Every structure is written in C-alpha cells, then in structure tokens.
Amino acid sequence: MLDFDPTSQNLPNGHLIGGALVANRSQSIAVRRPSDGAEYTTIPSAGSETVDRAVNAALAAYRRSGWPHAAPRERVRVLNRWADLIDSHCNELARLEALGSTRPIAQAARWDVPYLAETVRFFAELADKHGGDVAATANDRFGFVVAEPYGVVAAIAPWNFPLVMAGWKIAPALAAGNAVVLKPSELTPLSAVLLAQLAIDAGLPSGLFNVVQGEGALTGDLLCRHPDVAKITFTGSTETGARIMTASAESGIKPVTLELGGKSPQLVFEDADTDLAARCISGGILSNAGQVCVSGSRLIVDRRRHDEMLERIAALMSQATPGPTWHEATGYSPIISQKQFDRIDAIVETSVGQGAEVVIGGRSMEGFGSGAYYAPTILNDVSAETDAARKEIFGPVLTVQSFEDEEEGLALADHPVYGLAAGLYTNDLTRALKAVRRLEVGTVWVNRYGRSEDFIIPTGGFKRSGIGRDLGRQAFEANLRQKSVLIGLDGH
User: Which residues of the chain have pLDDT under 70?
Assistant: First the structure.
C-alpha cells in the first residue's frame, strides 16, 4: 500500500547551503496542500544575503573540491551512487512529492522517482564521452577545442513535476562539472532538499548542490542577477522566461536555457486509428490535470471524424478518478492552488461567452472540501480567437476545432505564439513526414503523446516556447563552454 498520512511526514524544511540545512525564519512563506487546501508548513524566504551565501558556497566548492577537473569516471561513479540512493529512498521522496504537489502518490512512486534516477544515470554516462574536438588546421599549427564547465549554474524548477524537472537541470550541470544552486517552486519546496541531501550522501562534495527557498519575483530574480552565476536554466511560463532573459542581460550577459509555455495541438486525420488517438488525447490532457507544459490541449480533427472522436474522448475523460494525492487509488490530480483554479474557470467562462460549447466539465468537482479539483472539460466549436484556444490554460481543458482538408488542419495547428509540442495521428507515413516538416514545434509525437524514457531525445520549444533544450546530448553540451586553442609548430 502506498497510502500515507499527510500529517505525519518528516519535512526537510529550509535552505540547504554548503551541505547544511539552514532554517532562516526572518521571512516565511506558507505552503498549502493542493488536495485539501490545508497549510502544512512554512518555508524561509531567501533574500540577498542568503542567495549570496548559497552562490558563494557553490563557487567555493567548484573551485576547491576538484569536481570540474575530476576524472570523468569518478563523476560517473558519484552520480550513479546518487541515482541508487534515489531509488532506495523512492517511497520517502514520493511521499514528499505527493504531499504538497499535484502528483498522486502512485504516479510519483512508480514513475516520477524512477524516472529521476534514470535521468541522473543518463547524464552521468555522458560525463566521460564528451571532451572537445581537434580542429582541421594548416600543418604548421595545431588547433583544438576544449569543453569546460561554466562554474555556478542557477536552476529554477517549476511546481508541476518538481523532482523530474529539477533532475533535468541538475543532472547535466553536475555531470558536466558545474556547481548548482537550485530554487524549487515555493509551492512545492521540500522534495528538492532531500534530493540534495542524498547527493551529498552519495559523495558529491558539499556546496556543489545547494537549495534556496523563496518566491521567483524575489529569490529567483536575485539568483539570476548574481554576478557569480554563470548560466541560468528555467522551466515555467513565457512571461517569467522573458523576465529571466532581462535579468541575464542586465547582470552580465549569461546564457539561458528556457522551456516555456505551450498550447500543443493534437491533429487527427481521417485515416487515424481512432481508438489509439482517443486514448492518447485523453491521456495527454488528463495527465497531472492538464498542468503540463506539453499538455495536448487543442484537438484539431478531420470533420468526418469529429463526432466519433468527441464521443470517444469524452467517455475516456469522464472516467478520471480524483482524490487526495496521498491515496494510492487517486489517478487524477488537484489543481495546484485556488488562484490557478480560478484562472482556469475564468478562461472557460469567458470562452463560453465567446461561443464555445461545453461538452463535459466546465466546473468544480464536488466533495473535496477546500481542495481545488477542476472537472475534465471539453469545449467544442471554438475559434482561433477564443480565449481557451489562444491562452495556455494549464488545466484539464481540451478545445475542439475541425478541418476540411490537410492544409486547413495544419494551418489550425500552427499557434501564433507557442511552439512546444504537437501530436499527430495518421496511418499514412508520407502524410506524417510532410506534417512533421510543417509543424513549427520543438517535439512532434506521431501516433503517441507524451515523453518516454528515451532520454536521448531532447525537448524544448520554438517561438515563445523557449530557448535551448533539456534532455539529450544537447542538454549536457549546453552546460559546457568551448575554449579554442591554437599552437604554432614552426616557431613563429
């Protein structure tokens, strides 16, 4: 049984700086459980002094620990020990994750934590497989390119998959030889602290992985602007990503990796396997109650399959099993906060006023007290101008549009702002490959939807959905800078 009592958990609360837990209570932030709205802890809020302390600890560890210059296989061994500890502490990490986030305990224990451990192992194995290049030069000189870590990487993780998203940032940075200061979301702050403690237990030098708590507008901004932070990696909204780019430019020009908002289409052609498509599309919007950057929130379907697809998807979405995140039977997540719930509801209400038809949902789910549960929702007959079709809702709301021919379908799939991901359903390989070329998105899934454990496949967006890539070799290489060396061989 994975069920647990949310009131009897050991909470690793505070900042983790230089290997020690720091409980600065001069300013604190209340943290609530999404499942019932109850305040279960408070966290310290890092101001300039605490952020400076964390970055200084990271820089000192980077310079003195020998980590950036360690034999690559030694880094591999430490990171693999860390992955093993993550696996062995799976239930403890999963409970912390489920306690205060939107991740049901069964999903956190069976997917999130094992996926995190495998993420660490994947990037660990890249540590001794990339070092630079010998350049093609004239015979009287010898040129080569050395790949070196940046130094201190600031990582800002979102609340929707706290451990998984933190792993995407920390693992490649450490594998490449950097130090890290992580700011988890103030809505889901605790699992990151245990994660960092396990890294130290695995042999990572103290100070190489630090955690600071606080809100993005204060703590995150201070971290991004710190003069000793050499690189920034962030997952979150497009608006916050723009502010981080500004902070980077104003504080010394730092490289940034940004995975930002999405409004991903699910494009269903006439020849699609409708059973498969319906399962993928319903899963793509129900996962984490739609609180996923790549959530497949726009169904764009051939008019001849519209009614059939709508019926199948509505039936599957209606089978969602909501409940508290600490119950093993729960399969459908609460909304992270009442504020986010109200935003979802307002967009749906406005869209109905703009002509959208509610097929299912469009309301709160009853029987959960102060928990924020929004019913799985389908809005039919939306136009490209409808709020629900334009804006990233970050909730379980699927909009429906239909098309007459392939060209119209591809035009509807193209979003003027976002380009993160897309789903494509057809049995015609030629059509699929042509559509892949046309879709302006960072990831296209064909006859499936959602990420797998193929860590070699990078993820990231086009347009305002981001810059750079997480996962894959690209994420590892983004944590290294290149130094060119040219040696004269003829005495000149």
Answer: 24-26, 492
